[in-house]
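Sample A.
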Amino acid sequence: MLKDSFNRSHDYLRISLSDQCNFRCLYCMPDEQMEFKPAAHLMSADEVVHLAEIFIAQGIRKIRLTGGEPLVRKDAKEIIERLAKYPIELSLTSNGVFIDKFINSLVTAGVHSINISLDTLDPIKFKSITQRDVFDKVWSNVKLLLQHQIHVKVNCVVMKGINENEIAAFVDLTKDLPLHIRFIEFMPFTGNDWNKNKVFTHSEILAEIEKEFFFIKLQDAKHDTAKKYQVQGHKGTFAVITTMSEPFCSDCNRLRLTADGKLKNCLFSAEESDLLNQLRAGKDILPLIQQSVLNKKMSQGGQFSDTFSDTDPLKLINRSMIDIGG
């Protein structure tokens, strides 16, 4: 088992398959002329699987495939099918556009849970946020996943002045659909124009929901990053990921592997460990993994102030969100 200096065990690995995406979301990758890494600099399918094997041997029990958009990779189907053979819980985060093309592979691979990134229910606003006119396609694929009894979490990044007025509408979806809405506090990354005034906090989100619904607090599982709730009588649930206002780092069990094979021991870590180039050089990378985990800071990569409103985003050392992997 991979343990850090705070005795936290790590059994959850997020693997980014690509630094590319077919969207250009304002808070993630707004530039149409983004330059992406050459394929030779990214992990091949064989390297993804080999690295996953090493982590699984060290106690990793859950792997989530992310991007960019993971399904833009031409060999995404192959990677999903190969990883599905291991004794892990395999899941995926996607913007939803290509789900219909992969649905048979996802079902066959036993992928029981998928996160869909969706920040608005308004097709016009959707186009404004993503710079793509495909809301109907995404929503159709959300319903397709439900038809196949796949557990669907909808990830909504709440940004003040952009979509906080849709919070109740998202919760209303859970009345008749077994969706699990997850409101995410807006987080700072390189190039995403974050400032404290755009953060809509956990307490503010609950206050919005209380205007229209009576809800109860649900029991949160060990290692949960989201605080879960349910409107009584609704089929689905909602939750808030409170990264900024109420960090949950004390029980963190997550590691991240970027598409170019760098290990990040925290979403906000400044330090990275280059596993891919060491692997290609024939080196034993297990000591590198173990040391990276040991170096993990207690909270938020050691880069944030105690209060998020005091955090200066220009002083943070990190990648863009798409370059890390969602």
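Sample B, a different protein:
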Amino acid sequence: MSVEVDVKTLEIDGHEVSASAGQTILAVARENDIPIPTLCHIDGLSDVGACRLCLVEIAGSNKLMPACVATVQEGMVVSTNTERLQKHRRLILEMLFAERNHICSVCVSNGHCELQSLAQEQGVTHVRLPYRYPELPVDVSHERFTADHNRCILCTRCVRVCAEIEGAHVWDVMGRGIDSLVITDLHDEWGKSSCTRCGKCVQVCPTGALFDKSKIGSEHPKYPDFLPYLNLMREAQ
């Protein structure tokens, strides 16, 4: 018995591409080697459109759309790297650096940080916004891991991998807006929480917010792509 596939034809950056109905713009772009920057997205986890770095322009609409959650439509014309988008992405990155205390030179993830790499790729040479310098906690209560809220960008990768892959639901987000924090359980210390100590949250963290105490420094990068459970989820999708 044959299964009909609803195929959509669209244009991305001048290239005509085909996609299955329900696919996201980001997925189709990456299938066709068209780069779109992201921070909150990681293959194998659900998408939430949190970082807004993957915003794209769609012909006929003044509104920028997040490529990680926007699905393809027949005849859609998408632009992924216009001057408007470049300015927008640089501003978002500057806001992330200004919001918390990201000091690359003394960060445990210096050289292996997705935020740092994206800033370099997008040409962010300085931050034009006033730094907030918030007083944020560093949780070292866990026997293996540390949570440094100064480096957190609220991408919620840790929340999603803990819920969707591990099924433990230890991590969540507390508060609203600029006062938001990722927390374990009901804001318990990480070492006193119901954490299963699997380390998946640490591996998917794009910055130095979550790190392994025994693997600090440039000699020990994170390897989110090698998590077997994420690979299984990617194959299922």
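Observation for Sample B: The first helix runs from residue 25 to 31.
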